[in-house]
Fold this sequence. Notes:
- The chain is of the alpha/beta class.
- The protein folds into three domains: 2-146 and 280-343, Periplasmic binding protein-like II (D-Maltodextrin-Binding Protein, domain 2, 3-Layer(aba) Sandwich), CATH 3.40.190; 149-279, 3-Layer(aba) Sandwich (D-Maltodextrin-Binding Protein, domain 2); 347-385.
- It is 39% helix and 17% strand.
- It contains 13 helices and ten strands.
- Strands 1, 2, 3, 4, 5, 6, 7, 8, 9 and 10 form a ten-stranded mixed β-sheet that branches.
- The longest helix has 23 residues, at 2-24.
- Mean pLDDT is 82; it is low at 1-40.
Amino acid sequence: MRAGLFTAFIAATWLGGQVQTSLAQTVSPNEAAKVSPRKESAPRKEAATSDPHTTGFVTGAAQSTEFAIAQDIATTLASGQETGPHGEVALRVLPMVGNGGIRNIIDILSLAGADMAIAPVLLADRLRSTGTLGDIGNKLVYITPLFVEEFHLLARSEIKSLSDLAGKRVNLGEEGSAGAVLGREVLNHLQVKVSESNLTLDSALDGMRKGQISGALLVSGKPVGFLARYAQGDGLHFLSIPYSREMLQHDYLPSTLRHEDYPDIIGDSDSVDTIAIKCALFAYNWPIRSERFPLLELFVQTLFSRFPEFLGDGHHPKWREVNLAALLPGWRRFRPAERWLQQQSGGEAALRKAFGRFLEQKSISNPPDREQLFQDFMRWRERQQGR
């Protein structure tokens, strides 16, 4: 078992370097095909046997919103479960810190304990189309699309615009992260030549405070709690990243950072235009007869049936962007997830049942209050499906 894990780690490390090199030069899916990166077989995957009740969830850096989402899932699903004679639960979700980029996808394909990961759809699409890791279309499936991840470009006070970063030291994040791969691409597209650093976010922000770094990029869903706390009082501010129609062809979306997202960084009536990308919850396509398949199936059933719980104020606001039934073009959905959605498409009765289970855990006992909450939930769901 140790030898297998060591082999998987070495393979992931080597392949990570190959993928980062090829995608770092990529500015669009079409141009990626022209690069003709070296093709390799998909990494080998061995099933973990140490704990049949724990599913591994690879996410972004510990400071990211994606990690907060994974923690939301882990803590929420841990409650309300029957326990065994020694306190064990049938399903345990274990968040695993990743870099939010290419490495997350490689981890799903190679690490024994990694069953699923939050990853940018754009990077997954490119890995599949270039064939850098072989045919991953049969090894990678999606559970559900999630939300958009915004580009957060922080700068020191003397940097007033994007053009002021030209020739300056700018941290794009660790190699292979969404910030490093896509930030490099965006800056090249905007013809802003910087001196690139690839530090952790903590190190980059510390370097900015000392004047060693002029800017730092993080690609993560807003609001990122760590940024709001760290930047307060340091004179840091967000730079606008202009959006063009050409970016839409490369799967970027327009977005805006507002005062309510970062009240200590953005003024009351101010906002900052930026761009964003979509992310999704991907999973390894375990064979039906494998021991990991029923565990991942249980995860899907539990997450989907308890989804209304994540829409409350106690959870990250990004949950309100999630539409479980949304499709991810070009990818296959994990079969139990598809089956659950088909079963629930029968209508409102199933939704009311799930919503009722959610409210039973709350202090809402007045029927009119329950009905009003359910109608608000239904209107929100209809808006999401209409997007």
